[in-house]
Amino acid sequence: MWHVLINVILPIYILIALGFLSGKLKKDIETDTITFIVLYFFAPALILSSFKNINLSIENIKFIVINGTLTIGIVWIAAGIISKKFYRKRIPALEISSAVMNIGYLGLPLIYVLFGEKALGYAISYMVFVTIIHFTVAIVALNPESFKKGLYETLKIPLIYAVIAAFLLKKVQFPEGIGKMLKLTGDSTMPLMLIAIGIKLSRIKPDKLSPAITGTILRLVIGTFISFVVVKTIQAPLLLKQTVFIQSTLPSAILNFVLCDRFNQNPEISASIIFLSTLLSPLWLIFVIKILLPAI
Protein backbone atom coordinates (compact mmCIF):
# COMPACT_ATOMS: atom_id res chain seq x y z
CA MET A 1 0.00 0.00 0.00
CA TRP A 2 2.77 2.46 0.95
CA HIS A 3 4.58 1.78 -2.32
CA VAL A 4 1.47 2.76 -4.31
CA LEU A 5 0.81 5.80 -2.14
CA ILE A 6 4.36 7.17 -2.17
CA ASN A 7 5.50 6.24 -5.68
CA VAL A 8 2.27 6.59 -7.69
CA ILE A 9 -0.34 8.77 -6.01
CA LEU A 10 1.73 11.18 -3.89
CA PRO A 11 3.77 12.74 -6.76
CA ILE A 12 0.58 13.46 -8.69
CA TYR A 13 -1.27 14.99 -5.75
CA ILE A 14 1.75 17.08 -4.72
CA LEU A 15 1.54 18.85 -8.09
CA ILE A 16 -2.23 19.26 -7.72
CA ALA A 17 -1.67 20.69 -4.21
CA LEU A 18 0.92 23.14 -5.57
CA GLY A 19 -1.61 24.29 -8.16
CA PHE A 20 -4.32 24.60 -5.48
CA LEU A 21 -1.99 26.63 -3.24
CA SER A 22 -0.96 28.86 -6.15
CA GLY A 23 -4.62 29.51 -6.98
CA LYS A 24 -5.36 30.49 -3.37
CA LEU A 25 -2.28 32.70 -2.92
CA LYS A 26 -2.41 34.41 -6.31
CA LYS A 27 -6.01 35.13 -7.24
CA ASP A 28 -5.17 36.56 -10.67
CA ILE A 29 -3.68 33.30 -11.97
CA GLU A 30 -5.84 32.02 -14.82
CA THR A 31 -5.74 28.52 -16.25
CA ASP A 32 -6.91 29.61 -19.71
CA THR A 33 -3.35 30.30 -20.88
CA ILE A 34 -2.06 27.02 -19.44
CA THR A 35 -4.94 25.12 -21.04
CA PHE A 36 -4.32 26.79 -24.42
CA ILE A 37 -0.61 25.94 -24.36
CA VAL A 38 -1.28 22.34 -23.27
CA LEU A 39 -4.07 21.68 -25.79
CA TYR A 40 -2.48 23.36 -28.81
CA PHE A 41 1.25 22.67 -28.35
CA PHE A 42 2.31 20.32 -25.56
CA ALA A 43 -0.38 17.60 -25.79
CA PRO A 44 -0.10 17.25 -29.61
CA ALA A 45 3.68 16.86 -29.16
CA LEU A 46 3.03 14.19 -26.52
CA ILE A 47 0.71 12.35 -28.93
CA LEU A 48 3.17 12.48 -31.84
CA SER A 49 6.04 11.22 -29.67
CA SER A 50 4.14 8.48 -27.81
CA PHE A 51 2.07 6.94 -30.61
CA LYS A 52 5.19 5.50 -32.25
CA ASN A 53 5.21 2.57 -29.82
CA ILE A 54 1.49 1.72 -29.93
CA ASN A 55 -0.26 -0.76 -32.19
CA LEU A 56 -3.87 0.41 -32.12
CA SER A 57 -5.84 -2.10 -34.20
CA ILE A 58 -9.54 -1.96 -35.06
CA GLU A 59 -10.18 -4.49 -32.28
CA ASN A 60 -8.38 -2.27 -29.77
CA ILE A 61 -10.40 0.75 -30.87
CA LYS A 62 -13.62 -1.27 -30.49
CA PHE A 63 -12.57 -2.22 -26.96
CA ILE A 64 -11.99 1.45 -26.08
CA VAL A 65 -15.38 2.46 -27.49
CA ILE A 66 -17.26 -0.37 -25.72
CA ASN A 67 -15.62 0.27 -22.34
CA GLY A 68 -16.12 4.02 -22.55
CA THR A 69 -19.72 3.77 -23.74
CA LEU A 70 -20.78 1.27 -21.07
CA THR A 71 -18.88 2.87 -18.18
CA ILE A 72 -20.11 6.38 -18.91
CA GLY A 73 -23.55 5.36 -20.19
CA ILE A 74 -24.60 3.13 -17.28
CA VAL A 75 -23.43 5.63 -14.65
CA TRP A 76 -25.21 8.41 -16.55
CA ILE A 77 -28.49 6.45 -16.62
CA ALA A 78 -28.14 5.53 -12.92
CA ALA A 79 -27.58 9.20 -12.03
CA GLY A 80 -30.69 10.15 -14.01
CA ILE A 81 -32.82 7.56 -12.21
CA ILE A 82 -31.51 8.63 -8.79
CA SER A 83 -32.05 12.34 -9.48
CA LYS A 84 -35.68 11.76 -10.50
CA LYS A 85 -36.40 9.43 -7.57
CA PHE A 86 -34.72 11.34 -4.73
CA TYR A 87 -34.56 14.92 -6.01
CA ARG A 88 -37.89 14.80 -7.90
CA LYS A 89 -36.39 16.22 -11.08
CA ARG A 90 -33.70 15.55 -13.65
CA ILE A 91 -30.38 17.13 -12.69
CA PRO A 92 -28.04 17.18 -15.73
CA ALA A 93 -25.15 18.42 -13.56
CA LEU A 94 -25.40 15.28 -11.40
CA GLU A 95 -25.55 13.05 -14.49
CA ILE A 96 -22.58 14.49 -16.37
CA SER A 97 -20.40 14.97 -13.27
CA SER A 98 -21.03 11.39 -12.11
CA ALA A 99 -20.46 9.86 -15.53
CA VAL A 100 -17.46 11.60 -17.09
CA MET A 101 -14.07 11.13 -15.44
CA ASN A 102 -10.91 13.23 -15.39
CA ILE A 103 -9.34 11.10 -18.08
CA GLY A 104 -6.89 13.67 -19.44
CA TYR A 105 -5.45 16.10 -16.92
CA LEU A 106 -5.32 13.46 -14.17
CA GLY A 107 -5.50 10.27 -16.24
CA LEU A 108 -2.47 10.82 -18.49
CA PRO A 109 0.00 11.61 -15.66
CA LEU A 110 -1.30 8.68 -13.59
CA ILE A 111 -0.96 6.24 -16.51
CA TYR A 112 2.55 7.54 -17.19
CA VAL A 113 3.60 7.03 -13.56
CA LEU A 114 1.99 3.56 -13.38
CA PHE A 115 2.89 2.03 -16.75
CA GLY A 116 5.38 4.34 -18.42
CA GLU A 117 5.45 5.93 -21.85
CA LYS A 118 4.45 2.69 -23.60
CA ALA A 119 0.85 3.06 -22.32
CA LEU A 120 0.36 6.72 -23.28
CA GLY A 121 -0.91 5.96 -26.79
CA TYR A 122 -3.72 3.84 -25.34
CA ALA A 123 -4.48 6.48 -22.69
CA ILE A 124 -4.62 9.27 -25.25
CA SER A 125 -6.90 7.25 -27.56
CA TYR A 126 -9.34 6.66 -24.70
CA MET A 127 -9.12 10.33 -23.74
CA VAL A 128 -10.00 11.42 -27.29
CA PHE A 129 -13.07 9.15 -27.32
CA VAL A 130 -14.30 10.49 -23.97
CA THR A 131 -13.60 14.07 -25.09
CA ILE A 132 -15.83 13.57 -28.13
CA ILE A 133 -18.62 12.36 -25.80
CA HIS A 134 -18.01 15.41 -23.61
CA PHE A 135 -18.41 17.90 -26.43
CA THR A 136 -21.40 16.22 -28.09
CA VAL A 137 -23.59 14.08 -25.82
CA ALA A 138 -22.80 16.05 -22.64
CA ILE A 139 -23.48 19.42 -24.25
CA VAL A 140 -26.77 18.17 -25.70
CA ALA A 141 -27.77 16.85 -22.24
CA LEU A 142 -27.03 20.23 -20.68
CA ASN A 143 -28.61 22.23 -23.51
CA PRO A 144 -30.61 20.22 -26.09
CA GLU A 145 -30.42 23.07 -28.61
CA SER A 146 -26.63 22.99 -28.70
CA PHE A 147 -25.83 19.85 -30.72
CA LYS A 148 -24.36 21.82 -33.62
CA LYS A 149 -22.37 23.93 -31.21
CA GLY A 150 -21.07 20.81 -29.47
CA LEU A 151 -20.06 19.25 -32.78
CA TYR A 152 -18.34 22.48 -33.78
CA GLU A 153 -16.46 22.57 -30.46
CA THR A 154 -15.39 18.94 -30.99
CA LEU A 155 -13.99 19.72 -34.43
CA LYS A 156 -11.93 22.55 -32.90
CA ILE A 157 -10.08 20.16 -30.54
CA PRO A 158 -6.47 19.90 -31.81
CA LEU A 159 -5.90 16.56 -30.06
CA ILE A 160 -8.17 14.81 -32.58
CA TYR A 161 -6.06 16.03 -35.50
CA ALA A 162 -2.88 15.20 -33.60
CA VAL A 163 -4.07 11.59 -33.23
CA ILE A 164 -4.87 11.41 -36.97
CA ALA A 165 -1.46 12.89 -37.81
CA ALA A 166 0.24 10.42 -35.44
CA PHE A 167 -1.41 7.50 -37.26
CA LEU A 168 -0.43 8.85 -40.68
CA LEU A 169 3.15 9.55 -39.57
CA LYS A 170 3.54 6.39 -37.50
CA LYS A 171 6.16 4.85 -39.78
CA VAL A 172 7.92 8.12 -40.57
CA GLN A 173 11.31 8.46 -38.88
CA PHE A 174 11.70 12.03 -37.61
CA PRO A 175 15.16 13.63 -37.56
CA GLU A 176 16.79 13.12 -34.16
CA GLY A 177 16.48 16.79 -33.22
CA ILE A 178 12.75 16.89 -34.04
CA GLY A 179 12.17 13.68 -32.08
CA LYS A 180 13.93 15.11 -29.02
CA MET A 181 11.98 18.37 -29.32
CA LEU A 182 8.65 16.48 -29.45
CA LYS A 183 9.60 14.35 -26.44
CA LEU A 184 10.82 17.33 -24.41
CA THR A 185 7.65 19.30 -25.19
CA GLY A 186 5.38 16.32 -24.62
CA ASP A 187 6.97 15.47 -21.26
CA SER A 188 6.06 18.96 -20.02
CA THR A 189 2.36 18.29 -20.62
CA MET A 190 1.58 16.27 -17.51
CA PRO A 191 2.94 18.52 -14.73
CA LEU A 192 1.18 21.48 -16.35
CA MET A 193 -2.09 19.50 -16.46
CA LEU A 194 -1.85 18.64 -12.76
CA ILE A 195 -1.06 22.20 -11.69
CA ALA A 196 -4.01 23.42 -13.80
CA ILE A 197 -6.31 20.97 -11.95
CA GLY A 198 -5.14 22.39 -8.62
CA ILE A 199 -5.75 25.99 -9.71
CA LYS A 200 -9.24 25.09 -10.97
CA LEU A 201 -10.08 23.28 -7.71
CA SER A 202 -9.04 26.37 -5.73
CA ARG A 203 -11.75 28.37 -7.53
CA ILE A 204 -14.77 26.08 -7.08
CA LYS A 205 -16.97 26.19 -3.99
CA PRO A 206 -18.31 22.76 -2.92
CA ASP A 207 -21.53 23.44 -0.98
CA LYS A 208 -23.93 20.69 -2.09
CA LEU A 209 -23.12 17.73 0.17
CA SER A 210 -25.94 15.30 -0.68
CA PRO A 211 -25.52 15.29 -4.49
CA ALA A 212 -21.74 15.39 -4.00
CA ILE A 213 -21.84 12.12 -2.05
CA THR A 214 -24.22 10.55 -4.59
CA GLY A 215 -22.11 11.66 -7.55
CA THR A 216 -18.84 10.57 -5.93
CA ILE A 217 -20.17 7.06 -5.21
CA LEU A 218 -21.47 6.75 -8.77
CA ARG A 219 -18.23 8.05 -10.29
CA LEU A 220 -15.68 6.19 -8.19
CA VAL A 221 -17.43 3.00 -7.08
CA ILE A 222 -20.04 2.21 -9.74
CA GLY A 223 -17.90 3.45 -12.65
CA THR A 224 -14.97 1.36 -11.45
CA PHE A 225 -16.92 -1.88 -11.17
CA ILE A 226 -18.65 -1.43 -14.54
CA SER A 227 -15.26 -1.00 -16.22
CA PHE A 228 -13.86 -3.95 -14.25
CA VAL A 229 -16.61 -6.22 -15.62
CA VAL A 230 -15.98 -4.95 -19.17
CA VAL A 231 -12.20 -5.52 -19.08
CA LYS A 232 -12.68 -8.98 -17.58
CA THR A 233 -15.22 -9.91 -20.26
CA ILE A 234 -13.73 -8.60 -23.51
CA GLN A 235 -10.43 -9.76 -25.04
CA ALA A 236 -7.75 -7.09 -25.51
CA PRO A 237 -4.01 -6.64 -24.85
CA LEU A 238 -3.33 -6.60 -21.11
CA LEU A 239 -1.70 -3.15 -21.12
CA LEU A 240 -4.70 -1.68 -22.96
CA LYS A 241 -7.08 -3.27 -20.43
CA GLN A 242 -5.06 -1.94 -17.49
CA THR A 243 -4.80 1.54 -18.98
CA VAL A 244 -8.48 1.91 -19.83
CA PHE A 245 -9.54 0.43 -16.49
CA ILE A 246 -7.41 2.82 -14.41
CA GLN A 247 -8.67 5.80 -16.41
CA SER A 248 -12.26 4.68 -15.80
CA THR A 249 -11.78 4.75 -12.01
CA LEU A 250 -10.83 8.43 -11.80
CA PRO A 251 -12.75 11.34 -10.23
CA SER A 252 -15.09 13.71 -12.03
CA ALA A 253 -13.59 15.85 -14.81
CA ILE A 254 -12.99 19.57 -14.24
CA LEU A 255 -14.57 20.20 -17.66
CA ASN A 256 -17.91 19.06 -16.21
CA PHE A 257 -17.98 22.20 -14.06
CA VAL A 258 -16.95 24.39 -17.00
CA LEU A 259 -19.83 23.06 -19.13
CA CYS A 260 -22.41 23.21 -16.32
CA ASP A 261 -21.38 26.79 -15.56
CA ARG A 262 -21.51 27.72 -19.23
CA PHE A 263 -25.08 26.44 -19.65
CA ASN A 264 -26.24 27.50 -16.15
CA GLN A 265 -27.05 23.93 -15.06
CA ASN A 266 -26.36 23.75 -11.30
CA PRO A 267 -22.59 24.38 -11.50
CA GLU A 268 -22.41 24.26 -7.68
CA ILE A 269 -23.52 20.59 -7.78
CA SER A 270 -20.87 19.79 -10.37
CA ALA A 271 -18.23 21.64 -8.33
CA SER A 272 -19.13 19.69 -5.20
CA ILE A 273 -18.89 16.32 -6.98
CA ILE A 274 -15.54 17.23 -8.57
CA PHE A 275 -14.10 18.44 -5.26
CA LEU A 276 -15.23 15.46 -3.17
CA SER A 277 -14.38 12.77 -5.74
CA THR A 278 -10.91 14.28 -6.31
CA LEU A 279 -10.35 14.50 -2.55
CA LEU A 280 -11.28 10.83 -1.99
CA SER A 281 -9.65 9.51 -5.16
CA PRO A 282 -6.21 8.73 -3.61
CA LEU A 283 -7.77 6.34 -1.08
CA TRP A 284 -9.88 4.72 -3.80
CA LEU A 285 -6.89 4.39 -6.13
CA ILE A 286 -4.94 2.47 -3.49
CA PHE A 287 -7.75 -0.12 -3.41
CA VAL A 288 -8.02 -0.15 -7.21
CA ILE A 289 -4.28 -0.55 -7.84
CA LYS A 290 -3.57 -3.06 -5.05
CA ILE A 291 -6.71 -5.24 -5.27
CA LEU A 292 -8.54 -4.84 -8.59
CA LEU A 293 -5.72 -4.14 -11.07
CA PRO A 294 -3.86 -7.45 -10.41
CA ALA A 295 -7.14 -9.34 -10.95
CA ILE A 296 -7.53 -8.16 -14.56
TrEMBL record:
<keyword id="KW-0813">Transport</keyword>
<feature type="transmembrane region" description="Helical">
    <location>
        <begin position="121"/>
        <end position="143"/>
    </location>
</feature>
<dbReference type="InterPro" id="IPR004776">
    <property type="entry name" value="Mem_transp_PIN-like"/>
</dbReference>
<keyword id="KW-1133">Transmembrane helix</keyword>
<feature type="transmembrane region" description="Helical">
    <location>
        <begin position="63"/>
        <end position="82"/>
    </location>
</feature>
<keyword id="KW-1003">Cell membrane</keyword>
<comment type="similarity">
    <text>Belongs to the auxin efflux carrier (TC 2.A.69) family.</text>
</comment>
<feature type="transmembrane region" description="Helical">
    <location>
        <begin position="6"/>
        <end position="22"/>
    </location>
</feature>
<dbReference type="GO" id="GO:0005886">
    <property type="term" value="C:plasma membrane"/>
</dbReference>
<dbReference type="GO" id="GO:0055085">
    <property type="term" value="P:transmembrane transport"/>
</dbReference>
<dbReference type="Pfam" id="PF03547">
    <property type="entry name" value="Mem_trans"/>
</dbReference>
<protein>
    <submittedName>
        <fullName>Transporter</fullName>
    </submittedName>
</protein>
<feature type="transmembrane region" description="Helical">
    <location>
        <begin position="94"/>
        <end position="115"/>
    </location>
</feature>
<dbReference type="InterPro" id="IPR038770">
    <property type="entry name" value="Na+/solute_symporter_sf"/>
</dbReference>
<feature type="transmembrane region" description="Helical">
    <location>
        <begin position="34"/>
        <end position="51"/>
    </location>
</feature>
<feature type="transmembrane region" description="Helical">
    <location>
        <begin position="211"/>
        <end position="231"/>
    </location>
</feature>
<keyword id="KW-0812">Transmembrane</keyword>
<keyword id="KW-0472">Membrane</keyword>
<feature type="transmembrane region" description="Helical">
    <location>
        <begin position="269"/>
        <end position="293"/>
    </location>
</feature>
